[in-house]
Every structure is written in structure tokens, then in C-alpha cells.
Amino acid sequence: MPRRFLVGLTGGMGSGKTEALRQFSALGALTISLDQIARSQALPGGPAFSKIVRAFGPGILDETGRIDRRKLAGRVFPSGAALKRLENLTHPLILKEMLRRMSRFSGIVVADVPLLFEGSHEKYFDATMAILAPISLRLCRVSKRDPLSLSEIKERMSSQISDKERRKRADIAIDNDGDLTGFRRKVAEYYRAFCLMAKAKIGSLGE
Fold first, then answer.
1. 68 and 74 in contact (C-beta within 8 Å)?
2. Alpha-carbon distance 123 to 115, whole Å?
3. pTM (2 decimals)?
């Protein structure tokens, strides 16, 4: 049976959790992105594609027959009920794939789970980590990265829990205030700590 130490990583839009996941991978951790799983499953032929189209109609498709993520977002984010419907359709499939991948890995495994606490998924991990950043900086990052209006960004952020709640619930919180070198140093320090914690966990399993 593979021996592993599982870390659930989370953070709001623009917090820097993708950069954190990239750094963990560079340091040697095996990484999983639930956003990437969701995108793959929503492609034509994927397990979520037909479910989403049936629920929200062909109007969410682009000219190539793929789901237009911005059109879909325009349907679900203004409505709490619609967003919940989408989550109920897709999250069980995404979670199943995450657990399947984690079961096959050994060593340090870090999974980027955007709705880690909203979905009460912390039970699947040995430790949880939240990446936090000032809201003004997050807005700036997302506006540069994504073709979204300020109102669209704020609407999506409002559907997530606050950084205050993330800090309260996470085992570890890293503040990402824009100093990339310092941020990467913090990630590296925690990676070394996870390696020590993994050795302790694996050692106790062997007793």
C-alpha cells in the first residue's frame, strides 16, 4: 500500500494558489489541480459534459460545440440556485477523480482544492493550507489574467468564503502580499516540514 502525506491547498481567486502548487511540484511533490480535472471532465465526451449541457442548455456552447466557460459562468454565478445545481452535477465526479489519483500516489501529495472548506473536504487530507492575499491585490491579479469585468470578478469572489474564514479553518495560512521570492521561500519551508511530517506518519504506520 502506498505511503503518502496528503495536503489540501486552497485560496480565493488571485491569491496565488496556482503559483504555490507550481512550486510544490518543482520541489518534488506530486500535485493535483481540481480546476484542471473540472476542465477535462467538461470537454465533449467527458463525464460532466452532457450533464452540464442538459442542465443549462445548448446556449452555453461555443461555435465548436464545446462549453464556453464564460457563458456558463454568466448563467450560474448570478444565481445561487444555479451555481448549486452545477456544483451538485460536477463536484462528485471531480472528487471521485481526485481520490482516485491520490490513491495511486505516494510521498508528498498536494491537491489544489478551490472549495476545500466550502465542500468540507478537509477530511481527506493530513494537513490543509490556505493561500491568502489582500482583496485589492487579488482583484488586480485576476483582472490582468482573465478577460472578466470587475463586476464579474467580484461576483465570483463573493461566492467563496472569506480569507478570514480560510485562516480560521486551515492548519497553515500563508500570506502572499506580492513578494514572489518571499512567497516561494515560505512554500519551500513548508514543503520541508511536510517531508518531516510524512516521515513521522510513515514511521508510525510501520510500528
1. no
2. 13
3. 0.90
Half-sphere exposure of 31 (CA within 13 A, CB side): 20
DSSP code per residue over 1-24: ---EEEEEEEE-TTSSHHHHHHHH
Give the Cβ contact number of residue 197 at 10 Å.
16
Cell of 177: 502580499
Q: What cell does 163 get?
A: 480569507
| Fold (topology level) of 4-205 | Rossmann fold (3.40.50)
* Cα 138 to Cα 133: distance, rounded to the nearest angstrom: 6
Location of C-alpha cell 511533490: 29
Using the predicted structure, report yes or no on whether residue 164 has a pLDDT greater than 90. Answer: yes
Q: What is the pLDDT confidence band of residue 204, given thresholds at 50, 70 and 90?
A: low
pLDDT for the residue numbered 60? 94
Q: How far apart are the first and last CA of the chain?
A: 15
User: What cell was used for 32?
Assistant: 493535483
Q: What is the model's pLDDT at position 203? A: 57
